[in-house]
Amino acid sequence: MCLLLGAAGVGKTLLVKRLQKLSCQGGQGDLGEPPPTRPTVGTDLTDIVAQRRITIRELGGCMSPIWSSYYGTCRSLMFMIDASNPTQLSASCMHLLGLLSAEQLSEVDQPCYMSLEEIKSLIRLPDIIACAKQNITTAEISAKKGTGLTGVLHWLQEQQRTSG
After folding, report:
1. Does 112 have pLDDT greater than 60?
2. CA-only gyration radius of the chain, Å
3. Measured CA distances, 147 to 37, 117, 126, 136, 143 (Å)
4. How far apart are CA 129 and CA 45, in angstroms?
5. Which pairs count as long-range contacts for 81-87, CB under 8 Å and 24+ apart, including other chains?
6. I want to staple 10 with a disulfide (CB 3.0 to 4.6 A). Which of 6, 108, 122, 126 is the partner?
7. What is the pLDDT of residue 74?
8. Residues 141/150, Cβ–Cβ less than 8 Å
9. pTM above 0.70?
């Protein structure tokens, strides 16, 4: 199980839809226009088949107060930050730090998605990585444009292989 977390409106549902389409195309091909999405109310489970079945549990951003009740079922975690919304950065940083300090997630690999240079300077990512117990993988993606998603799909496959 991979948890997908982030503030409301950062593009979690769009990322899942794009990854699902990419996995159906064998990790290649044109993704076309972004599909329509609606805000996730509660939680959504989506299976992606990439060599093996990977289940992604997307939790709506408004559910952040109870995210911790889902930590026990996850083997990997994706946390999204919307680089186009600077007003959300401080709240996203607090959520990220909370995730990294959660004992239940101490063994989970957590990639961060945003412009790498922006996130590094805005939330002092090198300091966060130095203090984290988890392996942190960073990648610059755009769920809307479809860029960088092949790397996310490969990361999910690798997490599935290494966790069991």
Report:
1. no
2. 15
3. 18, 17, 24, 20, 7
4. 29
5. 81/6, 81/7, 81/10, 81/112, 81/113, 81/114, 81/119, 82/6, 82/7, 82/9, 82/10, 82/11, 82/114, 83/114, 83/115, 83/118, 83/119, 85/9, 85/10
6. 6
7. 85
8. no
9. yes
Q: Alpha carbon of 73 to those of 30, 57, 136: distances in Å?
A: 33, 10, 19
Q: Give the position of tokens 């959504």.
A: 44
- Please check whether residue 55 is in contact with residue 31, taking contact to mean a CB–CB distance below 8 angstroms: no
Total Cβ atoms within 10 A of residue 164? 6
The band of 100, judged by pLDDT with boundaries at 50, 70 and 90, is: confident
Q: First-to-last CA distance in the chain?
A: 11
User: Cα separations (Å) of 102 from 70, 71, 107, 146?
Assistant: 12, 9, 10, 31
> Could you give phi then psi for residue 157, rounded to 5 degrees?
-60, -45
Residue-wise pLDDT for 58-84, tens only, equals 998 888 889 999 998 888 889 988 877
- Reference 64, options 10, 15, 113; nearest CA is 10
Handedness of CA 145, 123, 6, 103 (dihedral sign): positive
- The pLDDT score that the predictor gives to residue 156 is 87
